[in-house]
UniProtKB/TrEMBL annotation, chain A:
Belongs to the binding-protein-dependent transport system permease family. GO terms for cellular component: plasma membrane. One of its GO terms (biological process) is transmembrane transport. It is a multi-pass membrane protein. It is found in: Cell membrane. This is Binding-protein-dependent transport systems inner membrane component.
TrEMBL record, chain B:
PANTHER family: ABC TRANSPORTER PERMEASE PROTEIN, INNER MEMBRANE ABC TRANSPORTER PERMEASE PROTEIN YCJO. GO terms for cellular component: plasma membrane. It holds the Pfam family BPD_transp_1. This is Binding-protein-dependent transport systems inner membrane component. The chain crosses the membrane at residues 12-35, 79-98, 110-131, 160-185, 266-290. The keyword Transcription does not apply. One of its GO terms (biological process) is transmembrane transport. Its main location: membrane. Belongs to the binding-protein-dependent transport system permease family. It comes from Caldicellulosiruptor hydrothermalis (strain DSM 18901 / VKM B-2411 / 108). It comes from the Bacteria.
């Protein structure tokens, strides 16, 4: 049997190896983005750039990068605000109101979590064309909000159920209306759950690909993941420029992660833990 | 009486008003599309012409005889098995090691999370170039280690392409399941370890007698998540190979997408989507009840 010290050595060896596996691709990406095409073709791929250049980043900035970024910010932030509003209203009813169809409706919506969203892709594409909103950010917001609702309503309802009934009763005696109860009492108390739901949907939608691929077509209207897709189609052979684009596209998430590590991780996991 | 009635009416109106946005959105973007998908599966339609040709169950019969679809479904199943076999053990091992290290290992945690921050498209494009036979990182490293003979056309060879892509997907998802298990481990009461320590337990015994049994509900959940995820997977495969070379990496979702939006067969695409719906929903229900019964 190995002694404690020897085991610790193995721990570290394994963790070190996994660090390499997990992170070397990122170093390759960052290093390559600072190389010229010439240096990449001539030298070893894993080498640190000898004369780092920001030329590739300038190439990316000359393209539509900021437009893709802007579209992503708009599509995701509008969607998240709407998701929070619509799902918290529904969750408030499911968690705090008594009415005949409460359980039936709630169960039906929760069942929506298990639905493979791909089955909705073709009909939503047709619908988007019929509504004459194809190739617009608006085309994305509808499905983004709707497809996020089952999970969001579930998380919020379960959270709101835990809020003590006494608070509500006190407010009712004071003559508080349903709307005031929602906006002044339940909503502020649900802050932690709202943040989790917001981060979960925000990170998921920030990276969403297939709906953006199907519902938009021009760079003017596309989001960042599609920007990567378009850029690599256009600059297929210019690997350093593509790596610069990838590095830039990672930055917003990296910054968000550094600012709120624990919350981001908790948010990303929310869907899974509940699933 | 009248006052009470009107109060009740207001109450019900309020409920309706609060639920309406959610119900309308779910109706328009989830329920109607599912019905529509099954409906469209009985038509031949290119998605453009105003005329849809009713063909009854022809698309479904074609699907039954479509070797590409069965091959894609087979790939989905292979993909389920590979992800379970590769992702779960590594994720559990990493989670256990990080959990035992405590706060000291926080830096490793952060380093391991990185793949989770990247979008699937970005990961797909990055690894396309890592796999590049001429100036990719992988051949560079193999060259450097004098292992040139191992170098392959990772994505171009139909025999290897599927495994090359699955390796990347595992790389992407291991951190996700790792955190999932770290969260579960943090719920194990410290007293259990202390009791085991008094009994003179070894590191291995901690793992087999305490950690693994207490993780098992989480492992089941993770396996269901992975199963469903593998059945509807699309992003990385489409970005890295578009299902090629010669359908080697085809999955149901990529085949559905290509049928509908590249070959303009909306009816047939809808048939594939509807079949996916049936398969995934059934698998989900079966997996759910199978794991629930065992727990009881």
């Amino acid at each position: 049997m190995a002694t404690g010290k020897e085991i610790k050595k193995w721990y570290f060896a394994f963790l070190a190896i996994w660090t390499l596996i997990a992170d070397i691709p990122f170093l390759f990406m960052a290093f390559t983005s600072l190389k010229t095409q010439m240096e990449l073709l001539m030298g070893n791929t894993w080498q640190i750039p000898k004369k780092p250049t920001i030329g590739n980043y300038l190439t990316v900035f000359e393209g539509s990068f900021f437009n893709y970024l802007k579209n992503s910010v708009i599509a995701v932030s509008v969607s998240v605000v709407l998701i929070l509003l619509v799902s918290s209203m529904a969750a408030f009813v499911f968690a705090r109101m008594k009415f005949g169809l409460n359980n039936v409706l709630y169960s039906l919506i929760i069942a929506g979590m298990a639905i493979p969203i791909h089955v909705t892709l073709i009909p939503i594409y047709i619908l988007t064309n019929k509504m004459k909103i194809y190739d617009s950010i608006l085309a994305l917001i509808g499905p983004y909000v709707a497809l996020s609702l089952p999970m969001s309503i579930f998380i919020l309802t379960e959270f709101m159920r835990e809020i003590p009934i006494e608070l509500e009763e006190a407010a009712k005696i004071d003559g508080c209306s349903m709307f005031r109860l929602y906006s002044n009492i339940i909503l502020p108390l649900s802050r932690p759950a709202l943040i989790t739901v917001g981060i979960y949907n925000g990170t998921y939608l920030w990276n969403e690909f297939i709906f953006a691929l199907v519902l938009t077509s021009t760079p003017e209207k596309r989001t960042l993941p599609l920007g990567i897709w378009d850029f690599q189609t256009k600059y297929g052979s210019d690997i350093p420029a593509i790596m610069a684009f990838l590095t830039l596209s990672l930055l917003p998430m990296l910054i968000a992660y550094i600012l709120g590590q624990d919350k981001i991780i908790k948010g990303m996991m929310a869907g899974a833990v509940k699933g | 009486m009248g006052k009470e009635r009107s109060a009740k009416l207001w109450h019900n109106m309020g409920i309706l008003l609060f639920l309406a946005p959610a119900l309308i959105l779910i109706g328009v973007y989830i329920i109607w599309p599912i019905i529509m998908s099954f409906n469209l599966s009985r038509f031949d339609w290119d998605g453009i012409s105003p005329q849809k040709i009713y063909v009854g169950f022809k698309n479904w019969i074609d699907l039954m005889h479509d070797t590409i679809f069965w091959h894609a479904l087979g790939n989905n199943i292979k993909f389920i098995i590979l992800s379970l076999v590769i992702e779960m053990p590594i994720a559990i091992l990493l989670a256990v090691l990080l959990d035992r290290g405590g706060k000291k290992f926080d830096i490793f945690k952060s380093l391991f999370y990185l793949p989770m921050l990247m979008s699937s498209v970005a990961i797909g494009v990055l690894f396309k170039y890592i796999y590049d036979p001429q100036f990719g990182l992988l051949s560079g490293i193999l060259n450097f280690l004098h292992l040139d003979f191992l170098a392959q056309d990772w994505l171009g060879d139909p025999k290897i392409a599927f495994y090359s892509v699955v390796a990347v997907i595992c790389w992407q998802y291991i951190p996700f399941y790792m955190i999932f298990f770290i969260a579960a481990l943090s719920n194990i009461p410290q007293e259990l370890y202390e009791a085991a320590k008094i009994d003179g337990a070894t590191q291995g015994q901690y793992f087999w007698k305490i950690e693994l049994p207490l993780l098992s509900p989480s492992i089941k959940t993770a396996c269901i998540l992975s199963l469903i995820g593998s059945l509807k997977y699309f992003d990385l495969i489409y970005v890295m190979t578009e299902g090629g070379p010669s359908n080697a990496t085809e999955l149901m979702a990529t085949y559905m997408y290509k049928s509908a939006f590249a070959s303009f067969k909306m009816g047939y695409g809808s048939t594939i989507a509807s079949a996916m719906f049936i398969i995934i929903t059934t698998a989900g229900i079966v997996a759910y009840f199978a794991t629930r019964q065992k727990e009881a």
